[in-house]
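Module 6 notes. Inverse folding takes a fixed backbone as the condition and produces residue identities as the prediction. Think of it as a translation problem where the source language is geometry and the target language is the twenty amino acids. Below is one complete input and output pair. Work through it position by position during the lab.
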């Protein structure tokens, strides 16, 4: 009798194990507030693998280039460029330190010579980012041989979205300053060319942040763990 029942018992055990695995598989919705530029990075560099690993987790991105209040906005977490230091926030690095790139379309340089140093930018049409939170213009920072130089740019075009600045640059309107990962595909295709590369400043990277008082759901934990930057990964 035991020999007859054994296969059935093993099938029941396997079914129980399967149900247990399903119960611990993260599920639910995770709402993240991100900038437009960060959203593009997430959609290409992170989301495809995450969606395969956690098919039951729904990721919702709220695109806003201002520094959105997570609690009042109903978000679980936010991702922004640079480290946040608010005392009630937990901050997790999610990308490595990188560089910014000064770029323009090849057609733009058919009319003007390429700048050789930051001081040459005064003779060019500059496409400049305006911070949505403070209203301040992005002050372009440069570094070479241990020397730092800050340029108070005089813009020919201003936008508070990096995606708009990128499109303007691709259209030959002028020179803009964006993150390397934002423009690398266009540099590889030749749609953009890079200038002042020897002066390229470092960028601290992206950080995910959430209130220290927020309950960490399994779905949010999956997002945090999958995004957490690991050197050499």
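Target side of the pair, the amino acids:
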């Amino acid at each position: 009798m035991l020999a007859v029942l054994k296969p059935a018992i093993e099938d029941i055990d396997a079914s129980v194990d399967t149900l247990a695995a399903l119960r611990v598989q993260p599920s639910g919705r995770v709402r993240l507030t991100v900038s437009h530029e960060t959203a593009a990075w997430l959609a290409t560099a992170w989301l495809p693998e995450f969606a395969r690993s956690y098919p039951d987790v729904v990721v919702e991105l709220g695109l806003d280039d201002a520094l959105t209040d997570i609690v009042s906005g109903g978000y679980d977490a936010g991702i922004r460029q640079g480290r946040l230091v608010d005392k009630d926030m937990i901050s997790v690095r999610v990308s490595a330190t990188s560089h910014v790139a000064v770029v323009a379309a090849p057609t733009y340089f058919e009319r003007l010579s390429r700048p050789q140093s930051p001081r040459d930018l005064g003779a060019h049409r500059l496409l400049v980012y305006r911070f949505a939170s403070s209203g301040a213009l992005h002050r372009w920072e440069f570094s070479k041989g241990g020397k730092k130089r800050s340029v108070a740019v005089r813009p020919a075009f201003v936008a508070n979205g990096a995606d708009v600045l990128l499109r303007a640059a691709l259209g030959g309107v002028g020179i803009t300053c964006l993150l390397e990962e934002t423009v690398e595909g266009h540099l590889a295709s030749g749609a953009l060319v890079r200038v002042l590369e020897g002066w390229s400043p470092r960028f601290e990277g992206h950080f995910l942040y959430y209130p220290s008082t927020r309950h960490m759901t399994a779905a949010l934990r999956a997002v945090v763990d999958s995004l957490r930057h690991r050197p050499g990964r």
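Reference fact for the lab report: Residues 29-96+205-227 form a domain with the D-Maltodextrin-Binding Protein; domain 2 fold (CATH 3.40.190.10).
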